[in-house]
Write a structure and sequence with these properties.
heterodimer; A: mainly alpha; extended; B: mainly alpha; two-stranded antiparallel sheet
Chain lengths: 266, 192
């Protein structure tokens, strides 16, 4: 067997040509393809015309008749930015309403206000993720999973830095109380936001579950931030942060369960 | 999609009809029957290639193709002219395929195997090229295979594939470049 040539710097030119999709190859690429057997094989295979299959008898006719049966004019959906703004406004309005109903207790606390700003930024970032996920072929500027976990970690770190550390004897009991209350708000909030987003196209994936879980968690943490009397670093970073983390995990698991349920039913 | 000889036998793809797609989609959203006929004529071969490249038999591919068109129809309001149409179509095709794959995987896990002879796929009879395509794609991990199938069949750019797969350009680029390198080695070995 002849020796297989190694990757040369010029081979990168071919990678870049293939990255661009349909186009006329550059002069440098044509020159390289002539001299490099490895790239020639790859380039010809990638751009070789694939066989064009035909659908089985009657498939096209069946599809067409079903489409024609319900063909009516529809309005295109708003842009991703407009959708993200809508999610953000709905989230903020609902969080403010829940906070007013429970009762403000930390409006004059600088740390709480700083955390409120961080939560607002996190909500905006995740609102864009949700808008991209519910619009087919949107360009994701950042990974949904990374965004959700970075926001959760930032929340914990910011709470640890912004609030004083006090030793409290009832750390566990008070914490469980806040975690329970936070989750009671987070889960319905995530589910309602999902229903609000589900208009026309909603691919239920782990990413969608994660982003809805993260938004639900931020909702719970936001309301707790302005209603909880225990403004202390260990409590907020540990228990309020846990609302976000548990909610993200719950959202991802719920999406998987939904996928399983749907595949069982088909 | 036409394949033209550029210069001395170096192939390249030309999709002159692609620029008409946003206009056709807008007419489809307005309820014009001729627009959906034209869209089906232009896009159906590519969609069938996509479903068959994932290794299913012709019957499964036809089912997925039908299901995909119905999803496209249901989601047509989610298209925003004049955004690129191919990534939009492939995003829906991808979710259709993923849903079916999950369903089959669960069904296979539950069903008792009766040691029946495997069904011979129609694509296996369609010549060496189809077999070679399947064999080469089988040498790639799932994530890389998906990217390569989209790049090869649709001629989309990396950014368009990133849109279709709800991923970032960086992630798709990494997968594509790893797949190119693996394919170079496999193709070279085959020819040697």
């Amino acid at each position: 067997m002849s020796e297989i040539p190694q990757y040369a710097m010029e081979c990168e030119t071919i990678d870049q040509e293939l990255d661009r999709g349909s186009h006329v190859p550059s002069a440098a690429a044509v020159e390289h393809i002539r001299t490099c057997t490895r790239c020639r094989g790859l380039y010809h295979w990638m751009l070789g015309a694939p066989q064009v299959p035909a659908a089985g008898a009657g498939v096209n006719r069946r599809v067409r008749s079903r489409i024609m049966g319900s063909l009516q004019a529809v309005h295109p959906r708003a842009s991703s930015f407009a959708q993200a703004l809508r999610f953000f406004i709905v989230f903020t309005a609902a969080a403010m309403m829940a906070t007013f109903m429970i009762g403000f207790s930390n409006f004059d606390n600088a740390g709480a206000m700083a955390m409120g700003c961080l939560l607002a930024v996190g909500t905006a970032v995740l609102s864009f993720s949700l808008a991209w996920l519910t619009s087919p072929a949107s360009l994701h500027r950042y990974s949904v999973y990374s965004a959700a976990w970075v926001i959760a970690i930032l929340f914990v770190v910011a709470a640890a830095c912004l609030f004083p550390w006090h030793a409290t004897p009832d750390f566990l009991s008070q914490g469980r109380e806040c975690l329970g209350a936070g989750m009671m708000m987070a889960l319905p909030a995530g589910a309602l936001l999902g229903l609000f987003a589900a208009r026309g196209y909603l691919p239920v994936t782990g990413a969608l579950g994660t982003v809805l879980g993260a938004l639900g968690g931020l909702f719970g943490a936001s309301v707790l931030q302005f209603t909880c009397r225990r403004q202390e670093a260990a409590h907020i970073s540990g228990w309020h942060g846990a609302v976000i983390v548990v909610s993200i995990v719950t959202g991802a698991l719920a999406a998987r369960l939904f996928q399983r349920f749907r595949s069982d039913r088909r | 999609m036409s394949l033209l000889a550029a210069g001395e036998g170096i192939p390249h793809r030309e999709r002159s009809w692609e620029k008409d797609l946003p206009c056709l989609m807008a007419r489809y959203q307005a309820g014009e029957a001729e627009a959906i006929d034209e869209l089906m004529r232009l896009l159906s071969p590519m969609m069938l290639q996509y479903f068959r490249a994932h290794g299913g038999n012709a019957h499964d591919a036809d089912d997925l193709f039908q299901e995909c068109w119905l999803r496209i129809h249901k989601s047509r309001a989610a298209y925003r002219p004049p955004e690129p149409v191919l990534p939009w179509i492939f995003a829906i095709a991808r979710y259709t395929g993923l849903d079916e794959f999950r369903r089959l995987r669960r069904r296979e896990a539950r069903e008792i195997s009766y040691a029946e002879p495997p069904e011979v796929s129609a694509t296996q009879h369609e010549g060496d090229e189809a077999v070679e395509l399947e064999q080469l794609l089988a040498s790639l991990p799932e994530g890389q295979r998906e990217v390569i199938v989209m790049l090869k069949i649709s001629g989309m750019s990396l950014e368009e594939v990133a849109r279709a797969t709800a991923s970032t350009v960086g992630s798709i680029k990494q997968k594509a470049h790893r797949a190119y390198e693996r394919l170079r080695v496999v193709l070279q070995k085959e020819r040697a």
